[in-house]
Write a structure and sequence with these properties.
The complex is a heterodimer of chains A (192) and B (845). Chain A has 8 helices and 2 strands, in the order H-H-E-H-H-E-H-H-H-H. With 192 residues, chain A is mostly helical. Chain A has one domain. The radius of gyration of chain A is 17 Å and the shape is globular. Chain B has 34 helices and 16 strands. In chain B, strand 15 and strand 16 form a beta hairpin. In chain B, helix 19 packs antiparallel against helix 20. In chain B, 50% of the residues are buried. Classes of the chains: A mainly alpha (192), B alpha+beta (845). Chains A and B meet through helix 2, strand 1, helix 3, helix 4 and strand 2 of A and helix 1, helix 3, strand 1, helix 8 and helix 17 of B. Strand 2 of chain A pairs antiparallel with strand 1 of chain B.
């Protein structure tokens, strides 16, 4: 059985992260499934013994996945940014797949993904993740970096600074990309 | 049209517009768009949503997590059982209502996790045990009909009880007292029968008790806990099997201390669990709910007897508990049982019983730390500086410390972060020290600080985290709340810390922060009390505020802890006496019941125990604290104290060094100077005194060090600066004259003597340690008789460090006295017993 048997892989993970930081593209591909599995496992873990559904910010999930995979002594800011960047892509995929599965016509009932603002849960409608995903894909066709900025900020909860670090661009650029993308995306999603 | 046409240009102009405002923006747009009306209209439509898009996407995505869905097997036929509907899904498996086709009766069928099938021997033992319990034919034990296996998943078939679990019942609130007693009698009866046959349930909790609508109760799942947790070996195999099965059996809340530690279990473990269940039924599970006051003291006594930490002090089996419950049932039904609320003199007794119950409840989470745990590597340390009040309103100055204190508490909730105690950083209040300088002084890698201001009635708090070595801003956030709503402010602050600050520091947020305040008035009183001095007068005011706050909001751990400290000072330096100490202990225990990870409260409780001769309890608690939070300097200090009181000075010194490494500026470990004095390491003793330099306490201890170093003149100078009468109540009025004559050489050795009454004044000290050091003064200055009387008193009080008189030069003059050898022998015996105890507890190493 051994549910926890494969939970201890500090060596390969730290090594993969290091390789990846050194621009080893293969490392990223090998990491993805591990991280995906870890996110899944963590989500499961969070639910252990729970009877009620509840929401969890992706930031918390990704952060915990990182801590568990990289091990506490592997903590490095640069690795962390890289890790979050990758996790953002995964998160996006997971959330969008999930939302697709549930069917877009069922909006309102069983919305499984939302922009969770504790002060405005009632006021802010849930973000249509499928629409957001499609809009981001179109944006990526003309401005891949800008699309990525949104992905990191929204799907993995990276700060402006972390986003800048992960993408190797300045914080000023991140802020500009973010503010203009938000206006465009808001319009796109609002006028659908 | 495609809204992304010519996006680079659109984006550039949009960026330009966003960086400008008002007329400036207008003129910029006019120029940038020129005659391109299409571009201008596209830009305008994007800018039109500027306000509405402000918060859009700003909060990262969240996922909705759902309980794992196991395949619903309803409709399937398993053997002769037709599964009708799923009744529930629990950690161990799913329960179905099934129909027994052969015997034509309803049954409950529980499908277990396939993990349970892994160990065939264990599965067989479970079958035996479940059958044995079932064969007792006890009316309150669920009957087991059959066992089987479905696709590798073991299942068991039991009688079907139409009702709900006690857990479901408790969700609707606490039970009427008659029902509590009634269910208690039924379950105790079931357990008594099982215990008589040597069967232990091991997992008594509301989830395992079925209650029919008519109040008839039955115990479920005998033997299952053992199957799940493995054998009752104490060699750590338990913890292993927990993880293998991927679940923890038994909620810590109901686990007896010995169970949490993975020791052998017997009937008394079930007694404990039933005690906790009774408590939960009676109170709804909230310790110190107002409603506790209405409970019959007899019931509280039964719960108290059931939940004694030391199992020898509990009922031997459920039989004794059953007898007491039945007795109470008869009295209650005949209206004889006293209700505590009606008898005010009983309240004291009630509080005492409650303290026992709580002490028992508290010990569970602490004990859990006894399991071998993975070593924690602390990577980051952080200090929270007092906040700056940038409003002109002095009335909210108290928030400078209060905010820092709240954030310190919130950050301390994770063991992955070393948080400098507020005692270390409060001296930076109102100073111009830069965060970096403060960080260096406090040896913290990160600094959290900020400011607050008042806008109309809204309080705005800005919190920043700065990395010390790079001066990089790691995180910043502004939280606003109505100034009158301190709780909303705290909640927002806490959630931002969890979701923002902790991740920014690279630390995972803990599961939950305990002991949240619920009442605004009480919370405001608590916050204000933080800024009040500990001098006797103001301290009394703080006690009054906190006592009231704790009545209004009895669930706020920090209020109880603060009250515990205040009462301690009241006892030590005020007129509170032993009553204040008692109040202090009770308040600290309540704080720990609400928040078992409250380190300052736990440390203070250790101090209490050592002060009053409860050496082993003090040591046990200190050791658990260190195991639980090895990163905490204060926890190390508590252990150093326990080792010193036990006479293990080298161990004490080691823990003192561990404490100071973790909290270099926290004044709390100052009394480590005693350890180093007793070891003859005077320079190191002075280092620890300096943690609290300038205080009356420091002058006293510095004098003691100098006397031992033979520096009589320097000692005299310390004495000259000391306020006469310090420490209050501990020394007779004639003491300072005596010391002054002695240190100036005006009195020939041995000519000065204390009266019996003076000696009795020394002996009134609650803490045994001062007796040792004042005895040193007396011996040094020639009153050997009084010195020996003080020393002798330390022995029954379990102050084994008195064995240090052998080497401590302060006692050179009394070594020729016959009583000296008696005291030394007794102190050595005290020390060896303690060492024996420590060895037994910690194993050879």
């Amino acid at each position: 059985m051994g549910l926890e048997d494969d939970a201890h892989q500090p060596q390969p993970i730290s090594q993969l992260l290091a390789d990846w930081a050194n621009r080893d593209a293969g490392a990223r591909d090998r990491l993805m499934p591990i991280v995906y599995e870890e996110l899944r496992r963590l989500a499961h873990h969070y639910m252990r013994g729970e009877r009620e559904a509840h929401t969890l910010q992706t930031t918390a999930l990704v952060n915990e996945a990182y801590l568990r995979l990289a091990g506490i002594d592997g903590l490095q800011w640069r690795d962390r940014a890289h890790f979050f960047a990758m996790a953002a892509t995964l998160m996006r995929r997971v959330l969008v797949d999930h939302a697709r599965q549930r069917g877009r016509d069922k909006r309102g009932a069983g919305v499984s993904v939302m922009s969770l603002d504790e002060h405005a849960i009632a006021a802010a409608p849930a973000v249509d993740v499928v629409a957001l995903d499609e809009a981001l894909e179109r944006l990526a066709a003309v401005d891949p970096q800008q699309s990525r900025v949104v992905e990191l900020r929204f799907f993995a909860g990276l700060s402006v600074k972390e986003t800048a670090e992960a993408l190797g661009i300045s914080t000023a650029t991140v802020k500009r990309d973010w503010s203009t993308a938000k206006l465009w995306l808001y319009n796109e999603l609002a006028t659908r | 049209m495609n809204t992304l046409n010519d996006w680079p240009r659109l984006k550039r102009v949009l960026e330009g517009a966003l960086s400008r405002e008002g007329a400036d923006r207008e003129s910029y747009l006019a120029e940038a768009c020129g005659t391109d009306a299409m571009l201008r209209s596209r830009i305008d439509s994007l800018l039109a949503v500027e306000d509405r898009a402000g918060d859009f996407l700003e909060t990262p995505a969240a996922v909705l997590l759902k309980p794992e869905v196991r395949e619903d097997l309803s409709g399937r036929l398993i053997g002769t059982y037709q599964l009708m509907s799923r009744l529930g899904a629990g950690g161990m498996g799913d329960v179905y209502l099934a129909h027994d086709m052969k015997l034509d009766r309803p049954v409950a069928l529980k499908v277990l996790s396939p993990a349970f099938a892994a160990d065939r021997d264990r599965l067989r033992r479970f079958h035996q045990e479940a059958r044995a319990a079932s064969s007792l034919n006890h009316p309150h034990i669920v009957v087991v009909h059959d066992f089987g296996e479905l696709d590798g998943r073991p299942y068991l078939v039991t009688e079907f009880i139409e009702g709900e679990t006690l857990r479901d019942r408790l969700r609707k609130g606490r039970l009427p007292i008659l029902d509590v007693i009634d269910i208690g009698v039924q379950i105790a009866g079931a357990l008594a029968a099982a215990h008589a046959r040597g069967l232990v349930h091991r997992d008594i909790k509301p989830d395992n008790i079925m209650v029919r609508p008519d109040g008839y109760a039955k115990v479920l799942d005998f033997g299952l806990a053992k199957l799940a947790t493995g054998t009752q070996s104490s060699d750590g195999a338990d913890a292993e099997s927990h993880t293998q099965l991927g679940m923890v059996i038994g909620t810590p809340r109901y686990m007896s201390p010995e169970q949490a530690r993975g020791l052998d279990l017997d009937a008394r473990s079930d007694v404990w669990s039933l005690g906790v269940v009774l408590y939960e039924m009676a109170t709804g599970g909230l310790p110190f709910a107002e409603s506790t006051r209405d409970l019959p003291p007899q019931l509280l006594r039964i719960i108290g007897n059931a939940t004694q930490t030391v199992r020898d002090h509990r009922y031997e089996s459920a039989a004794g508990m059953l007898a007491d419950l039945k007795h109470l049932q008869r009295e209650t039904e005949s209206g004889l049982a006293q209700r505590a609320g009606m008898f005010s003199p009983r309240k004291l007794a009630l509080v005492a019983v409650l303290a026992v119950v709580l002490a028992a409840l508290v010990s569970v989470p602490l004990m859990r730390a006894n399991r071998p745990a993975a070593p924690t590597v602390v990577q980051k340390s952080v200090a929270v500086l007092p906040f700056e009040n940038v409003s002109g309103d002095r009335g909210i100055d108290y928030l400078r410390l209060a905010l820092a204190d709240e954030i310190t508490t919130a950050l301390s909730s994770t063991p992955l972060l070393a948080v400098r105690p507020i005692a270390s950083s409060r001296r930076f209040a109102g100073t111009e020290t830069s965060p970096q300088e403060a960080g260096r002084q406090l040896r913290a890698s990160g600094i959290v600080t900020g400011h607050f201001s008042l806008h109309d009635s809204e309080l705005r708090v800005t919190v920043e985290a700065v990395e010390v070595h790079s001066n990089r801003l790691l995180w910043r956030d502004t939280i606003a709340a109505q100034a009158t709503d301190a709780i909303a402010l705290r909640d927002r602050l806490t959630s931002r810390i969890r979701d923002g600050l902790l991740p920014a520091l690279g630390v995972r947020a803990p599961a939950l922060l305990a002991g949240r305040p619920r009442n605004a008035e009480a919370y405001a009183a608590y916050l204000k009390s933080l800024a009040i001095s500990t001098d006797p007068g103001p301290n009394g005011e703080a006690i009054a505020m906190l006592a009231r706050a704790s009545t209004i909001d009895p669930d706020h751990a920090d209020t109880w802890a603060a009250l515990g400290f205040r009462y301690y000072y009241e006892g030590q330096y005020g007129d509170g006496g032993s009553e204040a100490f008692r109040q202090s202990e009770a308040a600290l225990k309540q704080a720990l019941a609400l928040d078992p990870s409250h380190i300052p409260a736990a440390v203070r409780l250790v101090v209490h125990q050592l002060d009053t001769g409860r050496l082993r309890d003090g040591f046990d608690n200190a050791r658990r604290l260190v195991e639980r939070r090895p990163d905490s300097g204060e926890a190390r200090f508590a252990l150093s104290l326990a080792f010193r009181y036990g006479g293990s000075l080298e161990d004490s010194a080691r823990e003192c060094e561990e404490a100071i490494v973790r909290d270099p500026t926290n004044p709390v470990p100052r009394t480590c100077s005693a350890t180093f004095m007793q070891l003859g390491r005077y320079d190191r003793a002075l280092d620890f005194v300096r943690l609290d330099s300038g205080s009356e306490w420091a002058r006293l201890v510095t004098r003691w060090v100098y006397q031992r170093m033979g520096r009589r003149g320097a000692a005299r100078e310390q004495l000259r600066q000391q306020s006469p009468g310090y420490p209050p109540g501990m020394v007779p009025a004639s003491f300072y004259g005596f010391m002054a004559r002695c240190l100036s050489g005006d009195a020939p050795a041995g000519s000065d003597r204390f009266s019996d009454e003076d000696v009795r004044t020394f002996l009134t000290a609650r803490d045994s340690e001062p007796l040792y050091f004042f005895a040193g003064d007396l011996a040094y200055c020639g009153d050997s008789t009084a010195a020996l009387r003080l020393l002798r008193e330390t022995i029954p009080r379990n102050y084994c460090a008195t064995s240090a008189i052998e080497k401590d030069p302060a006692f050179a003059a009394i070594r020729n006295r016959a009583e000296y050898n008696e005291v030394l022998d007794a102190a050595r015996a005290c020390r060896s017993q303690f060492r024996e105890y420590v060895r037994a507890k910690t194993g050879p190493s």
